């Protein structure tokens, strides 16, 4: 059964909350227990101190036979009994000594023993004969019993206090262990949830985000399949379907842009075709006029020139057909200088007289390229440069092979109006254009960027307003010197 990502997240957080709540209750219980224990210790300590005071007055009584001492001793025992009863009623289930009622009975027995002692009139004076007689006759038999009861009470309550203190220390230690356990449990749970989030949410989202970023830049590569068994599967399937549709439409846009470029090139191509056709026409007329004459060598030269002009016109038409033809991405070993030369021939009629075109490309650069697509890149960049130099200037096309690197770079520089910083970040966006309406679709540089990425290359631009612009394109060159 497939569990949705929503249910997984809810289950993870429910588990986290449940364990955290359990840990909180355990620590809260320990806190409450320590609070109760401290109150018990305080009250038992009070009881113990009152018993000690009662015993002190008890000893004074047996020494001095003062009824006031006896009265004080009885009062302290009563207070102790009342406080102990309070401990039993309020904190009974939290005490270390469970049989507190038995202790209370012992305390009451001690109280009764004290209350059973009576002092005859005239026995309050330490040195009176009646006090001495009383000491010998009335108190001798009860003194030992009262002292034994008091001593047992003192020992019992001191033992109970020590036991309570030991329990508090133990609870504090246990609370420390609980805190360590809580910290470890929260750490393990948090780590587990983080791992779950990373593999089940973060990774799929990163894959989708990367793919969408590539789509935005014009590279329509599919998203790798995600076997998470949840909503991301259907999302990736939908996105891949969308990418396939975008790929199809991107091909249509590239083709449309080619046709638009052909429309721009028409006047130049007409001029280029007009020259060889004029030469052919002139040569044929001369041959016809001198058909009866015997100057065969001159006629042969005219016919050879005619054939060259026919080949030239055929090459121009062939280049146009190849450029306009729709085809799949098909990189082949291509001599780059020759490709640039063919491209310049196609746009030669579009070159204004006030623009100086310079080409600096070594003949040794050969790479695996889709010639049609790279030709599209060259035309787009050259036309952009020409349109930026309405008042004339210089256009330079250069290339170089990076030493020790399997790539080569070419640059197309113009001395035109340049690009400001705000516009620079948008020039590769689809449909973004600074040209007036009807003079550009805003797809040229976007398609150029996509073609370069399709070749696994990169394109960058440097420009300063009023000083010109340089586009730099770097493409892989996996052909070794041996294959060349």
UniProtKB/TrEMBL annotation:
Enzyme class, spelled out: transferase
Domain HAMP: 199-251
Location of the Histidine kinase domain: 268-479
Main subcellular location: membrane
Subcellular location: Membrane
Record InterPro entries: HAMP_dom, HATPase_C_sf, HATPase_dom, His_kinase_dom, HisK_dim/P_dom, HisK_dim/P_sf, Sig_transdc_His_kin-like_C
Residue ranges that the Swiss-Prot or TrEMBL entry lists as coiled coil: 288-323
MF terms (GO), sorted A to Z: ATP binding; phosphorelay sensor kinase activity
Cellular component annotations (GO), alphabetically ordered: membrane
Name the UniProt record assigns to this protein: histidine kinase
Annotated organism of origin: Desulfosarcina ovata subsp. sediminis
Source taxonomy: Bacteria, Pseudomonadati, Thermodesulfobacteriota, Desulfobacteria, Desulfobacterales
């Amino acid at each position: 059964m497939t569990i949705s990502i929503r249910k997984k997240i809810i289950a993870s957080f429910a588990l986290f909350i449940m364990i955290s709540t359990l840990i909180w209750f355990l620590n809260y219980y320990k806190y409450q227990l320590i609070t109760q224990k401290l109150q018990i210790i305080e009250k038992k300590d009070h009881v113990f101190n009152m018993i000690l005071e009662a015993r002190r007055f008890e000893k004074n009584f047996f020494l001095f036979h003062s009824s006031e001492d006896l009265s004080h001793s009885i009062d302290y025992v009563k207070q102790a009994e009342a406080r102990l009863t309070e401990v039993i009623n309020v904190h009974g289930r939290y005490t270390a000594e469970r049989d507190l009622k038995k202790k209370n009975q012992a305390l009451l027995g001690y109280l009764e023993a004290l209350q059973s002692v009576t002092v005859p009139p005239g026995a309050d004076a330490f040195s009176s004969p009646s006090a001495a007689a009383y000491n010998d006759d009335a108190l001798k038999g009860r003194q030992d019993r009262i002292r034994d009861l008091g001593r047992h009470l003192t020992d019992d309550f001191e033992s109970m206090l020590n036991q309570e203190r030991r329990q508090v220390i133990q609870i504090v230690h246990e609370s420390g262990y609980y805190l360590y356990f809580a910290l470890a449990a929260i750490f393990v749970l948090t780590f587990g949830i983080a791992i779950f989030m990373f593999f089940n949410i973060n990774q799929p989202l990163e894959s989708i985000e990367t793919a969408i970023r590539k789509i935005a830049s014009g590279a329509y590569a599919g998203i790798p399949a995600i076997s998470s068994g949840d909503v991301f599967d259907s999302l990736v399937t939908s996105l891949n379907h969308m990418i396939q549709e975008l790929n199809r439409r991107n091909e249509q846009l590239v083709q449309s842009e080619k046709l638009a470029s052909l429309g721009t090139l028409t006047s130049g191509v007409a001029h280029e075709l007009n020259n060889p056709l004029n030469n052919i026409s002139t040569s044929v007329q001369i041959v016809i006029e001198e058909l009866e004459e015997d100057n065969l060598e001159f006629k042969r030269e005219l016919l050879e020139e005619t054939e060259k002009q026919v080949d030239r016109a055929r090459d121009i038409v062939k280049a146009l057909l190849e450029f306009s033809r729709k085809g799949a991405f098909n990189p082949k070993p291509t001599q780059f200088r020759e490709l640039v030369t063919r491209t310049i021939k196609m746009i030669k009629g579009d070159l204004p007289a006030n623009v100086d075109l310079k080409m600096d490309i070594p003949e040794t650069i050969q790479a695996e390229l889709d010639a049609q697509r790279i030709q599209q890149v060259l035309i787009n960049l050259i036309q952009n440069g020409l349109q930026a130099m309405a008042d004339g200037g210089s256009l330079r096309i250069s290339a170089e092979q990076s030493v020790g690197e399997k790539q080569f770079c070419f640059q197309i520089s113009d001395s035109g109006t340049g690009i400001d910083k705000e516009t620079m970040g948008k020039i590769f966006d689809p449909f973004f254009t600074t040209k007036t309406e009807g003079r550009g679709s805003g797809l040229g540089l976007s398609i150029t960027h996509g073609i370069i990425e399709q070749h696994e290359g990169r394109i960058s631009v440097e420009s300063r307003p009023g000083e010109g612009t340089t586009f730099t394109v770097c493409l892989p060159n996996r052909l070794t010197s041996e294959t060349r």
